[in-house]
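Course assignment 3, question 2. Fill in each field.
Student: A.L.
Task: Predict the tertiary structure for the chain below.
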Amino acid sequence: MKRNGFQIMARLIGLVKPLTGYMILAIAMGLIGHLCAAFITVFGGYGIMNVLNGQKTGNLFAAVLIFALVRGFLRYAEQACNHFIAFKLLALIRDKVFGALRRLCPAKLEGKDKGNLISVITSDIELLEVFYAHTISPVCIAFLFTIVMVCFMGSYHVALGVLALAAYVTVGVIIPIATSKLSGEDGIRFRTKSGELSGFVLDSLRGLSETIQYGQGEKRMADMNARTDQLSRDEARMKRTAGRNTAVTNTVILIFDLAMLFLSADLCGFEGCLITTLALMSSFGPVVALAALGATLQNTFAAGNRVLDILDESPVVEEVSGKSEIEFHGAAAENVTFAYGEETILDDFSVEIPGNQIIGINGRSGSGKSTLLKLFMRFWQVQQGSVKISGSNVDEINTTNLRNMESFVTQETHLFHDSIRNNLRIAKLDATDDEIIAACQKASVHDFIMSLPKGYDTEVGELGDTLSGGERQRLGLARAFLHDAPFMLLDEPTSNLDSLNEAVILKSLHEECSDKTVVLVSHRKSTMGIADTVYSVEHGRMS
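Answer field:
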């Protein structure tokens, strides 16, 4: 979704509400600090006048010293406060983004570019530090500072105050807006291409063995270099815009300084000319900070827009809470029709899953077997018909209650870069070692784990790459056994196993699941041997 800069800014500012007190403190310290910095020069002007008039300057030099010390302290305190706010808010935003991803998962995240998502979660959110630490309070400080300085210079002559106001508005408002307009879509284009490059690199790393096997390394590298070069050209264009912005800003400041010098010389005496000119020359700091934002904020707003896209994305299914808890006594799909987009997967499909039985479902790839299990998990919403657990529509069952009643083993088991023990404990955080071992024995993976140097404390690689497909699948089954839910949904649970391990696991399922209901999806006839009832699915219908 494309948002303009003001919409993005309003949304990002809204997140500051919990830290409003700190923001006010930062603004107050920044305002006083900048006034101290500006008036150090002004006091110097008064000192010159005192010397010319034969008056003492001791008090002025003492004031300069005090203001310098105060300026240094307040500058540090303001920046510390701003960065405290920024890093607190970045942590809050990351928490919100992960919460949004959790709500969107798995339906809305299927097929999403994972590298692009990683780019949003890391670099895009990190870029928002520029907005929170270097934008909000500087804008407020510049506004208040402008009022004070315009009144001060206007006290010598109204025209001088008007000129100062024109200078501040030109540097702090007109130039940033003009730069932003000239930048156009450079920021969002750069952030989008940066995310795409991250996805391309991640994809290349995951497919490295295939790239080497088929001799496509040079082509892959050429594609990566082309993307990198294009990103560099986009960044160079943004840097040139920022450079032109700085040059224009400094030129405009010089013009206004000269204008103040000549106008004040015409309207005031020597003292008025000296003081107002020095005051204007020394007071552009807050608005110059705003002038630089015209170029830098394009990138920041583009990052903010990508973050807000995730936060505003609507999930396919909403979590349910506040309903009465139920116990599992069987499941059913009644006249279910479901489609991914325009492709119908299940068409008026019905099946009864009685309690304490093993129900086998087989069929060709793409016939809708796996989709049926996802509908029982309520990962997707049916277009027609209903999916029920214990006679209750899954849309009316608390999500936590539903998850506690179900164990779902997919064709691909995801393992985190952690120990085997911690990977298994995902299924039951308070599981004892004895429970973990018992679950692994049922999944025929305990002996393998014990053969490893560190046993259950052995770390698996990223995505479990240090293990074979069969070993990962058995760990997935061990998780299901450890979860100990009354309704087990097994999607091709033995597809990566040899005949011996398949027989052991099927025997465990048959023996250990006498008090459970199991839906067993497989294309293997040998797997269907333990099922009490076997259904065949063809073209989204039961046959």
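Instructor remarks: The beta strands are 331-340, 343-353, 358-362, 384-389, 392-393, 406-409, 487-491, 517-521, 533-538, 541-542. The CA atoms of residues 147 and 328 lie 69 Å apart.
Grade: pending
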